[in-house]
Write a structure and sequence with these properties.
Elements: H1 13-20, H2 25-33, H3 41-46, E1 49-54, E2 57-62, H4 77-93, E3 101-111, E4 122-130, E5 135-144, E6 149-160
Length: 162
């Protein structure tokens, strides 16, 4: 068997998170897209990048490779779920004032098509359906470069005030 390697690097996530507490969610997420703050470490593991940000709306992109395969030779469903959860959570974050956080309470994912190393770039688009002061509802979809729908998700996020 041929052995392959993949090196993953990231910046200190706690320093960025601390700085982010002083900004609204939209300001912080915009800072990530603009490179003023580093991408979160999970993004390095999956090769994900936060590409587009707006109020209640975000897009992540990644190009999965064979390092993300499951035992049957396809990209693990957890990659799709992570991208969808990230898109949903970050979309919710853009609606929050400074110092307020969130966490996923539940995530419902529908896997519609297999993802392979040759699929190319995939994009997770997340949007807020209903923002809230205690609970927010959001959805996301995952598509390939041709716009084919690969997976969908809906989620409830708990809003955490200091």
């Amino acid at each position: 068997m041929a052995v392959r390697e993949k090196t993953i690097t990231w910046e200190d996530p706690l320093a960025a998170a601390e700085a982010g507490r002083e900004l609204s969610g939209l300001e912080y997420m915009t800072g990530i897209v603009e490179g003023r703050f580093p991408q979160p470490p999970i993004a390095a593991h999956f090769g994900m990048t936060l590409k587009i940000i707006g109020p209640g709306d975000v897009i992540f992109a990644a190009t999965p490779d064979e390092s993300l395969y499951n035992p049957i030779g396809m990209v693990h469903g957890g990659v799709a779920a992570t991208m969808l959860d990230s898109a949903i959570g970050c979309a919710v974050h853009t609606t929050l004032p400074a110092g307020v956080g969130y966490t996923s309470v539940e995530l419902k994912v529908n896997f519609l098509r297999a993802i392979h190393g040759h699929t190319g770039e995939i994009r997770a688009h997340g949007w807020v359906v209903k923002p809230g002061s205690r609970i927010a509802f959001a959805e996301a979809d995952l598509r390939d470069a041709d716009g084919k729908l690969l997976a969908t998700a809906s989620s409830t996020c708990l809003i955490m005030k200091p």
